[in-house]
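User: Working on a comparison across species. This one is Glycerophosphocholine acyltransferase 1 from Candida verbasci. Can you predict its structure so I can line it up against the others?
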Amino acid sequence: MTKPSIDNGSAIIEDDKNMYNLTNASTSSQPSPKLMRSDSTVSVPYLDLSKLMFAANDFDFGLNLNEVSTSTKQKINSLKLKSKERYNKTNLEFDKLQEILNQRLIKFDERIHKNLVSTNTEKLFYAISVFLIALSGFIIGKYPIYFPHFHTGIFVILMPIRFYQYFKQSFQYYLADLCYYVNLLLMLFIWVFPQSPTLFVSVFSLSLGTLSFAVITWRNSLVLHSIEKTTSSFIHIMPPMTMFVMVHELPSDYIKLHYPGISAINNWNFVSSLIITSIYYTIWQVSYHYFISIRKKDQIEKGKVTSFSYLKKKNKSTRLGKFVNGLPYLWMQTLAFTLIQFGYQLLTMMPCPIWFRYKYACGCFVIFIFIWASYNGATYYIDVFGKKFEKEVNKLKAEVYNLQQENEKLHSPENKPVNPKNDDIKPEPL
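Assistant: Here's the predicted structure for Glycerophosphocholine acyltransferase 1 from Candida verbasci:
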């Protein structure tokens, strides 16, 4: 290999001097001289640094290399503009997609709501409800081991409908009530923790206690054409019915194998059952007041309905309602309502040892609750639909009477009858 000559070395030194002069020139804001390639055979080409300093403001290490060429600035601005246009275009496409999705959801919601309230749907639901009542009796008598599965199947179908209806009507805070909590505990006992005796005691006490008597206090009506009212009756009647079947109708060997939590209870301990159930009840009550009364306080003040606000308004004329509403602070009213509800829960649990020990007593009690809900449904049909039909008939009679009066006016214009007052109108029978 040929060694570089001294002249070549001098050329390299000259290039280094040029680099030093370049640095000083940039410092004094003078235009940089154009760098030339060395004549040395071992030297490397020097690049134009001004073309690489597009980020000089971010990477200025004391050399003041913040001079960017005009072409580079134009390229950067062009890149920014293109990126901004691409971003705006993406947002516009996303907004259009979101608008299309919202329109489809609105149409889907309208179709569901229309189907749920249509006459044909109510007729179909009435027929299905009658069939399911008959089928439940057949399963209890012939195949009681499948009744928990039957209950679960109906629960899975009705709960999404209930969630949809209540969220649409702004009644979603009702979904945090005790009845839904008990239904959830029952599902957990059947499918997740069948070996837990404490969970069984709580579910049995709350189902045959608070839920059963709620049919009386809340006037649950078995209106078979109404999905909403039938679902409410299902939530309160089916858990005690399922508990009756699981405790008194299933074979003992089957209970030991599939529901050991039931077989672990030989004798019902009244005190321990109250304590265990009260613990489960307290978990629900504390969670309810934290997530609903405290976390959703602003929404409630804006008009969202809860069980507490509904009962305050409904029972404001009763002695108990006047007492609760007369308390000076809201926290006092809430505390009073909580204590009253807890006392009601303890009171309804008192007969549970009888329901657990005596099959026929428990069966008669469940039948009584079912008959009460059916009676409320019959009252609804007669009072609501009967009064509505009576109003329509009276309206039709008034229209016929007015037509008769107008007809008389046309045929005898000289003898115009005096129009009687509305209170004196006595429609003739059809």
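For your comparison, note: The two ends are 129 Å apart (CA to CA).

User: Helpful, thanks.
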